[in-house]
Specification:
By secondary structure, the protein is of the alpha+beta class. The protein folds into 4 domains: 24-96, PDZ domain (Pdz3 Domain, Roll); 98-316, Rhopdopsin 7-helix transmembrane proteins (Up-down Bundle), CATH 1.20.1070; 328-399, no CATH class; 405-544, GAF domain (Beta-Lactamase, 2-Layer Sandwich), CATH 3.30.450. The chain is 59% helix and 12% strand. It has helices at 2-18, 44-47, 61-69, 99-129, 133-158, 162-188, 197-204, 207-226, 236-259, 265-284, 296-316, 328-358, 367-382, 384-399, 401-416, 423-438, 473-481, 525-544, and strands spanning 24-25, 28-30, 36-39, 55-57, 75-81, 87-93, 95-96, 442-449, 452-460, 467-469, 485-488, 496-504, 507-514. The protein is elongated and about 105 Å long. The protein starts with a helix and ends in a 15-residue tail after the last helix.
Amino acid sequence: MILGLAGLGAPLALLVMMLPITWGYGGYLTGENGTLAFVDPTGPAARAGLYKGERSVQSRGVEAVLEDSGNVGTVAHLTVLDASGRRHIVSFAFVPFSGALAVQERLQKLLSALTALGAFIVTILVVLRARDKEAGERAATVLLLAGLSSFCLGAALVCGNAWLGTLFYWIAPLFLSAAIIWAALKFLAVYPPNPSRLRSLLGKGAVVVLAWGVAQSAGYAYDLWYGTFLGWAEGRAGSAIGILLLLALVVALIDAMIYARGAYATPMRWLGGMWLIATILLVASTLPQFAGHNGDLLNAVIVFCLAFGVAYPVLRHRLVDLNMLVSRATVFGIASAIIVGLFVVAEWIIGRIFEQSMGFSSQRQGFAAEALTLLVVLVLGVSARSIHGFVEDRMTKTFFRKRMRGLAEIERVAREADAATDAHAIVGVAVGTVQRCLEPLGAALYLREGNGYELADAAGSFAFPSRYGFNEEPALRLRRWQEPFELNDESEDHHHVLFVPMTLRGDVLGFLCCGPKPDRTAYLGDEIAALSLLAHHVGIASALLERRHVIPSVALAPT
């Protein structure tokens, strides 16, 4: 169901991005008990004679939907009460957004559509590639609901239908806001692993939040139709319940950030920080300064923070195997797109300069203008390779800076191995460097001893065997081919374990064993090359030094 909804939502989000805004501007907002809480002095409502604080009789049914939907050209007939209690009708037509408000609504539509599209795409990837099924499903639920909420904010501006506009802008967000809190509490109950009792309890009680969302949206629909305002969607009772739900989410976030350990600390800080920002902005959106459409863009930013808050740890840290998403091929593609964009912009700018400043144009100078444009394009084409190299280098250093530093440090330690005076010390340095720079679940180094390979040193939490016999599969493969290889087991976690031989004159002195990465992805070519260099130099250093203290007595995990 999640996969189907996300797959349907992605093209709809693209459609929202392309369609023009059909929502109009009435310039008024009705508060509790029919009192006008906001009237824009420059809007149609003010020009028709309405003012803030005036009481109005709530319309019902079709009239209420039309008056609240605000499509361009819709005529609202608002029944107001004067001081003596007499009724009179004030009529005005909704107009297109203009000025700064028009810019704001366009930004809201664009941000909402992009957020929805990104959330739906990441949802699909999580459903298809999640390693931890339970955490992946709950993360995908948060992303889907955030995407739907963002989609509704954008779709209300372009749907051009009073009923759909009312559903997208007023009713659906009430349910989706509560559903996002419900999904977030359920997600935090299992991520990070080993949750506290408090988070587990909040996760079990999250169904109350979902029930509140259903009651709130149904209550608002009832209030809008009958003009009764029972207090489900507005009023002090509804606000108090909403604040309690937000407090529950804040408590769960703080608890998760405090107890996150190891590989989960960084993604949890990002997720918690983004969600806390969204919570603060949500509280700020209730201030009078954001009455009417003034808070529309803020609502889009809130949903963006919710979606991107969970998308970042999903894409970058440990929840899902998405190494293929951010790779050198991705950087190359982005760099190529930037170059093409620069070419188009440069050609347009140069053409405009020639036309406006020098009078060159194809209509006036014909071949001369086209030849000059062709010359500019050729110059840009000749320089494309250097420009592309510069852009790709900058982007690579930006996206893979930490990883490149780690590989450089491994290569540095490899070249320093020949200066070692103690074999046991250089083995420990090599294992520690691999563990620190690549951050696998474990790293170990085996040296030949008798009729097998004994564990010389290890780091990390991965359980390495204490010994490999000469005729076991890894040892046979290393001695026959003398090249690095990776074993991928058949377990649900799919551990990628890398074996790198240490050879000297065709003899395998030992090997470096790297456990699985925390994200369970395979080792890349440049990582294997750096590890091979390290193993080669450490193997030579170990062969030249005395090895009587190389094999220490260490506490080993069972095989």
